[in-house]
User: Fold these one by one.
Assistant:
Number 1:
Amino acid sequence: MSRNTGRSGAGANKTSKAGTSDNYSVSQTQADIEFSKLSANDIVKFIADRTTDPIVAEALEVLSEKIRLETHSAYEAEKRARTIVVMYHCGYDGLCKADYQLPPSRRHDDLVGKVRSLMDALDLECMPSEVFRMGRPRPDKPRLVKIVLPSTYFWRRALANARLLPSAGFRNVFIRRSMTEDERKRE
């Protein structure tokens, strides 16, 4: 099928050059393509494949990169909005590091078990999406523990129930929200 530009005469039917996405082809007209079902990148590629203006092509490349960065940034912000960071002082509570003679999988299992106890103390009925220690191991300093919760509801509840930790045996365990580097510098 050829693309009809609405003009009559010799140049009335024009075919655009091939697209790079599987979602559209040379023979499709605008009416055949359901733009609402294409991803943002596919729409950008669709336009780029049909333009001969180098300035428009460059603008589309920049737009595509901005879309990627903003999507990633939004994802990170959403994840950070349901993440808590646990700080603790070793020797007092049950969050100290497992023996480094253990294999990494056993050390992680040990950490997950300790986080489960912490979740019980915070009165949270959920399993974290992710649990891990941050940074490199250093013998003189305990590592922060990052816990990604399944929703912001549990995040709010964890921060609100932090006051319950000392009475549950976690006297020197503190939780805070996850923050960007800039947010940490401001606090």
Number 2:
Amino acid sequence: MQELFTGTSADGFLAMDQHTCTIDFDDSDNDEGLYDLNCYPQYEGPLEEDSDTLPTTHCGDNSTSSTSRVGKKRPRGSKSPTKKPPRTKSRFVEPAEEINSTLRSLQQSLVAAPPPMPQVVDPYASLWKRLEELPITTDQRITVGVHLSCKDNEGLRGWLCSASEKTFETWVCKFFADKDHVYSNM
């Protein structure tokens, strides 16, 4: 502190603190403009707090009316009776949370491996297998397969799938007889 005032004519005569401001230097009884600051307790809080506000007084003034506090600052942490309580949540919080959860689920689904492609199951696979086992030529198998694959023959395919082996062979023989094909291998 002395380094600040070296080389100046300041002697510290006017410097006062809260304990020396009420001491009379000129022996006059005129303390009209001075407040008694000795009734305030010493500041003991952390250094980061605001030192401009004084704590509440403990001066023996026990009145609890609201008019006695006019001009005095409220202690920290007390709420103003005229202020509305603050809203706890904004009206946008709930929709924002819903959007965020949707985005998270989309992100997780994009990061995850794609599901495997569904396997196409041919409901007539047993029919085609039985056709391959018949003792006929490859050209004859292709002819029967093309005929049974037509859209118009879906009912026939279903019936032949559930038919017995003997019925299936008889139908193939009749198919070639109707087409004027010679069926000699069966």
Number 3:
Amino acid sequence: MRSRKSSNSTCCVVVDFDRVCGLVGWGAGTDVKSEDLDHAVLDGRLPILPQERVFATARSFTTTCITFGAAIWVFLVGSLLPSVGNVKLGIVGYTSGLIIGFVPCVLASGVPSFRFGIDTVDASKSVFGVRGAFLPMIGILCTSLAWSTIIMAMVAQGVTKLVYGDGSGEGAMLTVAVALVVVVLCWLLVRKGLTFIQQVNNVAGPALIALATLSLALLLWRFGWDSLWTNKEPEAGVYTTDPLKSLAYALEFGIATSLAWWPYLGGMFRAVKHRRHVMTPSMIGLTLVGGAYCSSVAALAASAFSTSDPLAWITLLGGPVLGTGIVILILFANIAIMGMLIYFAGVSVQQLRPLAHIPWSVLLAILLVPVALAAFSTSWVLTQVATVTVYVGMQFVSITAIGITDYYLLRGQHIDAEHLFARLPGGRYWFWGGINWVAVLVVALGSATYIWIYNPVTLETADVFRYLGASIPVMLGCAVLYYLLMRLIARAGVGSYPFARDRKTVSGITEVGL
């Protein structure tokens, strides 16, 4: 048996290495090199111990969170905020939504992954079952590829506009070429692993904030605060003229953006070394600085220049020289963010045993194929930003609600980590054939209810949306429904809940105790 022990007396993991290899897809008895073990920990599914975690300081984690939070889609979403009808309400509502959505996201995804050093998908098995976790895995994969495609399209279109001014003729060919180059650069970055990505983020994060600050300074110098803050949008181009509904739209965009972090907070938090670095850096980096600050700058600029294209208002704001320089730096800094997205997708899809056997570089290449295909339709991709934002958040509203309910209210913050890796009928998270159908049902009902309250495509809303938005009532409803159903059904011993647990053991399971 090969053991991996923590130097921290409060955290110890002992692994029967042959058996855990079989559980995660390597096959028992495999002769594994030390570098392959490192890959299995940071880029695979083995729990990460404190001494193996790459975010050892508040600065390292904060810069990564800022880089992720200040992604190009934040500038895109921020540039859409004036469309809610009022730029002031857009900024206030969006910032409030970011904070409201971030707290449950951290509780549902970040805390369990930090505590046990496991990936988001593995943590979700205590809720969905060891096979049912396929549902959130698909959500993570689709979300990662969707945002990666948007970043790729934005970089390609941006470079083309700088060179030709439009995307026709030779510009169209350049757009495709640049998009494919971005895909290759992303592959080269991610194949180096999480440690290298974190080193790049140490530079990219502060650079993005500096560029946003420069943009804000130029806006204030050119227009003044009063003009920016009181600017009114033309009625023809807004979603609504009702102030309360404008606030609801902005609030929903903010909550949806924060809930979109659900797939990634677990992957990030499992690499954080100290508990004191969990909440503050992520709240500052992802929500306040990377999210709210950058999107507010984008909203003010979009309103001032009457365009939702961040590349257009940056160029108009800074002029042909400075504006071009800012655009170039922002575009290429976002390749690091694209790399983070693909990294998390690569870790999550290793839940599928055939993919767990594939070399890391090959797996990344497979994941990037859909992104490369989208290189031929970048204009269409950039028209889907608002829809992607809300749909991505929608799919994680119900998942977040039942995750919090299951982990805190039903399990009392206890997970038998070794059983997360066991696909055996005797496992504690086997439920019904490996799937918690109650969780699947609640997610389906929650998604249907969300679309009934707010349709992201048609922008049609129910009456309740004007006062609460869509995410808040759906999240509360899913939490209550899931709690009642599981309290009723778990009495039969299903799911191995503490209040009705029929303790079972699985012969030969990897022993993991944190």
